[in-house]
Amino acid sequence: MRTGSEPTTARSALRARLWLSLWGLAWAIFGTVVFALADRPGWAAACGVLWLVAAVDMTVILRHIRQGPHYQPGRDVPPYRPADTRPPPFRRPPPRHGHP
User: Fold this and answer.
1) What Rg, from alpha-carbon coordinates, does the chain have?
2) Quick check: 47 and 28 in contact, CB under 8 A?
3) Exposed e or buried b for every residue in 33-56, given b needs 16+ CB within 10 A?
4) Which of 5, 7, 24, 55 is the most exposed place for a label (fewest CB within 10 A)?
């Protein structure tokens, strides 16, 4: 059952994102240095932009980790309201008024 609140209750593996960001940051720094030494300024600039994006991403991830668990609910908190499995209550149809 979808409730429409999924974006506000979404979970993210922040530690995995942090490690992937560190991996990307290391490769971006390596690429910037290697292309700068190889006299390839265009590729060095492209790696420099990736370096900046990875650094900003890592900053955001660290901020979310420091904000604590209320921004990332635990496994015992479902991301949606559980479905109601009870049958709907019986409702008597409204009376018909027969006017002449």
Assistant:
1) 27
2) yes
3) eebeeeeeeeebeebbebbeebee
4) 7
Q: pLDDT tens-digit profile of 21-69? A: 999 999 999 999 999 999 999 999 999 999 999 999 999 999 988 887 6
Q: Which residues contact 17 (CB under 8 A, 6 or more apart)?
A: 57, 61
Which residue from 75, 80, 58, 70 is spatially nearest to 14, judged by alpha carbons? 58
**How distant is the alpha carbon of residue 1 from its chain centre?**
20
Residues 44 and 29: their CA atoms lie apart, in Å, by 9
Distance CA 1, CA 84 (A): 10
Residue 98, pLDDT > 50, answer: yes
**CA 5 to chain CA centroid, nearest Å:** 14
HSE, side-chain direction, 13 A CA sphere, residue 57: 18
